[in-house]
Design a protein that fits this description.
heterotrimer; A alpha/beta (383); B mainly beta (167); C alpha/beta (387); A: 383 residues; alpha/beta; 9-stranded mixed sheet; 14 helices; B: 167 residues; 5-stranded antiparallel sheet; 2 helices; 11 strands
Chain lengths: 383, 167, 387
């Protein structure tokens, strides 16, 4: 049962605020074609396909119906994980570890630009009786969390604003990022207080795009790629789906998911054993909270790590060098795919001007957004 | 397990009416990018024509048109106009609308059908409605032709074809 | 093939009703708790949770899996929801199988739920959104269209009459009288079916299972855990799933190719070479009566076009050579989509342990197959269970 699982290739298209020239089918075909070409395979070689998608983000029901043609997966085993890309990756790894499939493809895409009222979609995810009826912007849930987090850890709003500045600046070095920009802390703090302390510029804007990953069991991975990237550990967890039940300031689900992944990967000191982090920054405070949940730094210590420059591309805990969701654009359920893609590119030394030297192990962590407390972690490494 | 002990409490319609209710009308609006293939399809429908794509790998002429062949997994090759006539592959007859309401006594029943379009590959059908035909006379294998809206009323939608009728 | 063995050790189910007082979460909880109690386990014994529920539009909650997590035991645990439309309920144990067979987990709680009654003006209306938004939705299609189009093609291909097909509804609703969760158990006749309201010819009201609320759950474990919990584990010995093209109007609908492929995948894993001889009980998905026939053929339980004759000859009755839907199926028990599929799995679980009470088929059955179907006549999910 300890079959090693490798990522042979990743293909993508994106990531920009609109993609008017391509339908979602054409978008996925573009990304998948690249993934297959790089892996030197055809869809006929693939045993199973997993798509990460939610109906209301696609705009139609039973989204798995429409996911397979553009992957070349006609009359093949295909299923949808209504969850984060990283959960689908974990699922694919489990299928390979079971021995049932040797090559499994994972796809997810965002056509966020086609959703005219994203707030309505997020609100629709809340309890219809107790929460939705309040008729408040769904960002309120993030506002409650941020408020609690700042109080418990004594992190300042200014620290959170600096995450926005950092990530959007990082994105300028990422040719596929949709929202690279030079911002100042005062820009962020002065932006529209959507659900104070959450302000407009501290919320990741959205992008369209698609990411396709080809996973394979070890011997096949080695035959298809000279340097496959290995999945060292996966973890995912849900704390409580009920707003009224959760520990608002504490990243409980991140912690549980991370411990699961660390155990599998044999990691006991993440800050020393992991070289690169692509973590959730759907809201600016989330990045700091996530690093603490991942136990990369102690509780309340993330702001100090930021102060000391440790989280920058030149620091010892480079975080979101891709630009994160703040800089690339949030990709709905495909967000974790973009994080994994960054690790894949970095670990295979294809990250161009933003390449971090001497990277061997990377960690991707994503959160499913309001109103969930579901996080997923995937740890990957080269050899 | 027995009927008495299984959990689950059925509500009658009366109980349902009497409860406190919260009604919600979510504003879930989408504006889909049709992309290259479907945009052309719709544009041609506005012109009163049906257009398909061909794939040299499997020699199919495909409807609705698509920029990649899902079987050969390669880009499709050419645009190809097809006829607006075809054969009924299957059909049904209904007086029930999409929201489960019933059609009025003066409204004719709907006759949804899959029409295999002439000029496209065998079996290549599209979903549409039949009209100007007695439901009892509809047969699988019947030949039909599209009845288009007048040019000024066409919008670049599948409903630019009002229905298919026997011919 | 050498896969890690995975067993079902407990099951729970709620009544299937047109409209339940309980919320979706509460329904999920009832079924999950019952399954745990049945296995003699607590939530602390569960390593991971897998949730199956069909379109979010029914319950009226986006990210329905998250909403249901609390009720499904998914508190501070790994929870993942999967989705293949109507095929979900039989994919649920497959998803759970993947979790355990990988070696990553020892125990898994599989929970399926559906609360269709929340959807207004009628649950059927939610199905508008499964059609292609540009090339099909403007025509105002409904789910019944699909079934009627497929049923017509199937009937025409084999020269079957509506009466031939109505026998399935009669058989299944009769079987369901003995199922404690049943919404629609009844003694009806072929004439009743033929006289019922035509919804979309050839489909009539008594040819179909209407909207339901309900939930079902099972506990899956690895072999060594199973042996400590029960002396009658039922093994998930074969899994298969297959999705066909979304361009459904280009397919000849008389035969579900994708069900056959999924079945072959499951049979190969289970070491079954002659399903029509080796399978003792079948629970093919029967949301509409002709579907049971369609799926029996796709499951290779008989030759194409022969299924109706098997029903007419009593072969598929509970005391027949190949009982099909001894539970009463969706037609008789009800169809809260994802929970229906798992209800069929639970039926096999009970039958193979000799615990199906009045529904018990004679002869000590040891191998059963359950199947579900969904999407735009696209997906087949198949599970073989054995003792």
């Amino acid at each position: 049962m300890n079959r090693k699982v490798g990522i042979v290739s990743m293909g993508y298209h994106g990531f920009s605020p609109v993609t008017p020239d391509l339908s979602f089918r054409e978008l996925v075909y573009t990304a998948a074609s690249k993934a297959y070409a790089k892996a030197g395979i055809t869809p006929g070689d693939v045993d199973m396909f997993i798509c990460a998608a939610e109906d209301l983000c696609e705009g139609y029901s039973i989204s798995d119906e429409y996911c397979n043609d553009q992957l070349g997966a006609v009359l093949k085993p295909v299923h949808t994980v209504t969850g984060e890309y990283l959960q689908a990756i974990a699922n694919a790894a489990m299928i390979i570890q079971s021995g049932l499939g040797k090559i499994v493809v994972v796809e997810s895409h965002s056509k966020a630009s086609n959703i005219k009222n994203m707030d309505a979609v997020h609100s629709f995810g809340m309890d219809p009786v107790f929460n939705r009826s309040l008729r408040v912007t769904p960002h309120f849930a993030a506002g409650l969390e941020m408020s609690r987090y700042l109080t418990e850890t004594k992190t300042s709003e200014e620290h959170c604003a600096r995450i926005v500045v950092k990530n959007r600046a990082n994105a300028l070095s990422n040719p596929s990022a949709g929202h690279g920009a030079v911002l100042s802390v005062s820009d962020v703090l002065a932006s529209d207080p959507v659900a104070w302390p959450v302000s407009r510029l501290s919320i990741a804007p959205r992008s369209d795009g698609c990411i396709v990953a080809v996973l394979a069991e070890e011997s096949i991975a080695r035959s298809l790629a000279s340097d496959p990237i290995w999945i060292l550990g996966t973890g995912w967890a849900t704390e409580s789906s009920t707003l009224e039940n959760r520990a608002w300031g504490e990243p409980v689900s991140v912690d549980i998911a991370a411990q699961m992944a660390y155990k599998e990967a044999g990691i006991s000191v993440p800050s020393q054993q992991i070289d690169l982090f692509e973590v959730d920054d759907t809201y600016s405070f989330k990045e700091l909270q996530a690093l603490e949940g991942l136990r990369v730094v102690g509780r309340g210590q993330a702001m100090h790590a930021l102060d000391e420059g440790r989280l920058g591309p030149d620091g010892d805990l480079p975080t979101n060098v891709s630009g994160g969701s703040l800089g690339v654009g949030h990709l709905l359920e495909a967000t974790g795919g973009q994080k994994l893609l960054e690790l894949f590119l970095q670990l295979s030394y294809q990250a161009g001007e933003r390449q971090i030297p001497d990277v061997q192990v990377g960690l991707a962590q994503a959160w499913r957004g309001v109103p969930t407390t579901t996080s997923a972690v995937v740890i990957v490494g080269n050899e | 397990m027995s009927k008495e002990t299984l959990p689950g409490t059925p509500l009658s319609s009366e109980e349902f009416e009497k409860s406190i209710t919260i009604e919600e009308h979510p504003n879930l609006e989408y504006s889909w990018d049709d992309g290259i293939a479907i945009s052309r399809y719709l544009k041609e429908l506005k012109e009163g024509r049906i257009i398909a794509r061909t794939c040299c790998g499997c020699n199919r002429t495909m409807l609705p048109p698509r920029m990649f062949c899902e079987l050969c997994y390669r880009p499709t090759d050419e645009w190809a106009f097809v006829e607006d006539t075809g054969v009924v592959n299957t059909f049904c007859v209904t007086r029930v609308n999409w929201d489960a309401s019933r059609r009025g006594p003066d409204e004719p029943p709907l006759i949804p059908a899959v029409v295999e379009i002439d000029g496209a590959s065998k079996g290549m059908g599209i979903l549409h409605l039949l009209g100007e035909v007695d439901p009892k006379k509809v047969k699988i294998g019947m030949r039909v032709k599209a009845v288009w809206k007048p040019k000024a009323q066409r919008e670049g939608k599948i409903t630019d074809i009002k229905y298919f009728k026997p011919y | 093939m050498g896969y890690r063995k995975v067993a079902c050790v407990g099951a729970g189910i709620t009544k299937f009703v047109r409209r339940a007082k309980e919320t979706g979460r509460e329904l999920a909880w009832e079924a999950a708790k019952m399954a745990l109690d049945n296995a003699g386990m607590t939530l602390a014994d569960i390593d991971c949770v897998v949730i199956g529920s069909a379109p979010d539009a029914f319950d009226g909650v986006h990210m329905k899996g998250e909403y249901l997590a609390d009720g499904s035991g998914g508190f501070c645990k790994p929870v993942m929801r999967h989705f293949v439309g109507g095929g979900t309920g039989v994919f649920s144990p497959i998803h759970g199988w993947q979790h355990i067979a990988s070696g990553k987990f020892e125990t898994c709680l599989v929970v399926t739920e559906e609360k269709m009654s929340s959807c207004f003006p009628a649950p059927a209306g939610a199905f508008l959104t499964i059609f292609d938004h540009t090339t099909e939705q403007p025509l105002g299609p409904t789910l019944i269209w699909i079934f009627a189009l497929e049923m017509n093609r199937y009937m025409q291909r084999y020269g079957l009459t509506e009466a031939d097909i109505a026998k399935v509804s009669v058989q299944n609703k009769l079987n369901a009288i003995d199922h404690p969760a049943a919404q629609l158990g009844a003694k009806i006749t072929v004439k009743d079916v033929l006289n019922s309201e035509v919804l979309a010819w050839p489909v009539k009201r008594l040819d179909i299972s209407p909207a339901s609320d309900g939930a079902a759950a099972i506990v899956l474990t690895s072999e060594h855990k199973a042996r400590r919990i029960t002396d009658k584990p039922v093994w998930v010995s074969g899994v298969g799933w297959c999705l066909d093209t979304a361009y459904w109007a280009t397919r000849d609908l008389y035969y579900p190719q994708y069900v056959e492929k999924a079945a072959r995948m499951a049979y190969e894993m289970a070491g079954i070479r002659e399903p029509d001889k080796e399978i003792h009980i079948a629970e093919p998905y029967d949301p509409f009566d002709y579907k049971m026939l369609h799926h029996m053929e796709g499951l290779l339980l008989c030759k194409r076009g022969e299924a109706a004759r098997l029903v007419a000859d009593g072969v598929t009755a509970r005391n027949g050579r190949l009982p099909c839907c001894p539970s009463g199926g969706a037609l008789g028990v009800g169809n809260p989509i994802a929970a229906t599929g798992l209800m069929k799995i639970i039926e096999l679980f009970l039958q193979l342990r000799g615990e199906a009470g009045k529904r018990q088929v004679p002869g000590d059955p040891r191998i059963g197959v359950a199947q579900a179907w969904g999407d735009l006549m696209q997906v087949g999910t198949v599970v073989v269970m054995s003792r």
